[in-house]
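Q: Please design a sequence for this.
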């Protein structure tokens, strides 16, 4: 899969080499945002079933750096990158160095922001999240998830092979404490409360008393709001 080589390859490119490309939006073309984008190599997913995108189509979105302009954007969940169509109809990705940038898809009104987080491997990465509760010392974040399933050959010669596919899975929840990278919410209550040093007993008591489900938006927001109120 070419996907796995995309991000290391991108780091070799210079932003300067794309300074004249321009960005397409509903009001015309801009070159003022080019410093924040990198060129995207074509990623050939021919024969792969499913979709790695939030939406396969480029849809209307605003970018916080540029008020009153509308861009054509789509979110590649699998590679965790935002793609946009440039003024020359080429596809580009936004780099993640602009940590204050927010992308809002106008049809759904969903806003994605960039946060540092701990990956499943334990490394710190930057990625796109929707913030369910973004004020206070404790922030609740939600992240879309798509996995890649390798092609599976026929086991007997009579049953058909299974093609490679992208599969959307359940959204994942993360907690950000202060300026530390966000960490995945563990659905085991006793392990989860160990995140809150010095508040473990209080946190566990609140969860049990209020029957908080650690896989539910509203319950987690209620819990985080409680922690922020103390």
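A: Design:
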């Amino acid at each position: 899969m070419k996907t796995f080589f995309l991000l290391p390859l991108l780091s070799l490119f210079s932003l300067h080499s794309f300074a004249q490309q321009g960005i397409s939006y509903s009001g015309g073309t801009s070159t003022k945002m080019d410093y924040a984008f990198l060129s995207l190599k074509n990623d050939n997913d021919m024969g792969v079933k499913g979709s790695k995108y939030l939406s396969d189509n480029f849809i209307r979105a605003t970018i916080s750096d540029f008020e009153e302009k509308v861009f054509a954007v789509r979110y590649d969940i699998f590679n965790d990158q935002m793609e946009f169509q440039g003024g020359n109809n080429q596809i580009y990705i936004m780099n993640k160095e602009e940590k204050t940038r927010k992308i809002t898809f106008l049809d759904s009104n969903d806003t994605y922001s960039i946060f540092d987080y701990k990956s499943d491997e334990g490394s710190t990465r930057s990625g796109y999240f929707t913030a369910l509760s973004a004020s206070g010392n404790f922030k609740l974040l939600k992240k879309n998830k798509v996995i890649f399933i390798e092609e599976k050959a026929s086991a007997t010669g009579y049953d058909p092979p299974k093609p490679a596919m992208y599969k959307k899975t359940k959204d994942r929840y993360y907690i950000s404490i202060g300026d530390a990278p966000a960490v995945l919410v563990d659905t085991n209550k006793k392990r989860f409360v160990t995140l809150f040093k010095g508040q473990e007993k209080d946190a566990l008591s609140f969860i049990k008393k209020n029957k908080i489900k650690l896989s539910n938006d509203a319950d987690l927001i209620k819990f985080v709001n409680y922690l922020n109120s103390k």
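Q: Thanks. Anything notable?
A: DSSP finds four helices and 13 strands in the chain. The longest strand covers residues 165-177.
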